[in-house]
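For the sake of transparency, this paper describes our internal protein records without simplification. An entry from our holdings is shown next, in its original layout:
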Amino acid sequence: MPTLLPEGGPRRLLALSILVNMFGYGIYLTAGVLYFTRSVQLPAAQVGLGLSVAGAAALATGVPIGHLADRRGARGVYALTLALGAVAMGGLCVARSFSSFLVFATLGSVAQLAGPAARGPLIQRYGGERPAQLRAYLRSVANVGISLGALVAGWGVHVDTRTAYLWLIAGSALSWAACAALVLFLPAVPPLGPGSGPSWTALRDRPYIALTVLDGVMAMQYRVLTTALPLWLLAETTAPRWSVSLVMLVNTVLVVVFQVRASRSIDTPRAGGRAFGRAGFALLVACVLFSALAVLPAWCVLPLLVAAVVVHTVGELWHVAGGFEVSFALAPPHAVGQYQGLFGMGSALGVAIGPALLITACVEWGPMGWWLVGALFAGTGALMPAAVRWAERRRPHRDPEDTPVASPARTEKSA
């Protein structure tokens, strides 16, 4: 863990707060659906519908919350989103009907999506010259927190009683509240200036919207290992059932250990665009390998599965690292939160539509569907460098020689 945490001070405290928050989120992610169906006793179809509605409603909040963080101060707005998450988890503890479940699940989705938008200006300020590098550290820490939360949730799932599920959801609420308290100890980040453009500049920035859409398409790769692959393994291959857990273990360990390293050399927007290209090719190779699992003898399914997961995770690492750099470096300094909110909307939409598309293509269409999905990822990655160049041409203050852009903190110091 010490190698996963940035240097002391605000960076370390921010990482600690995210570890606490993601611990609670990992609990909810693992045990939430079971709590709704087995403890609240809602039909599974209602739970699925409610979570989809909640996610769709939250999509509209990223840009406004990010804009509010830019104008009113990111620390306070971020703490408010965390407090909202605590209220949502606490409300789910007393939910007894579909309507109350829908209200609090929606609040939780809003907190989960709006939080990173409000956190964007904090990362920009504390990250110095390389905010994307700090974001990579935070992602590694977040994965550790989610994994620890999932382990704790496993106890509740094993016990499978209402009391156990209530303790888990209540623990998640406490983690959100504790994170909000920790954030208040961070140094205040003053509100950013209004800039020279319109207030809702992100929604008028066509190159950045193009980057957001491409990242959203690529973000469907997050659902490959959690949705399409488990169904494919159990229905079409001779892989043992426990291989589903092996997939997540390999992926999580690699992300925790290598996300920071994958981000170190990606220090300019164009390097981020090239990383998307490499990511798309790696994801294409992984999809081809996944499709081959259905026709291989049992003795070589597991080795090839592990190899394919490793290749997929390499693509994920490049995709995430490129996204961190592009989303921060091409956002105007006066509207970081607003732009982070927009970029997060693309990823959230890709994650939301991913399961339906991937199940149809990969599971129902078979190997051909896997190849088409891989080609979609590769094509998206190939388009990203051109989109980055378009965005750079619309920003005359960017260095045409593709050098890193100084952070606001460094500019003030130099002045």
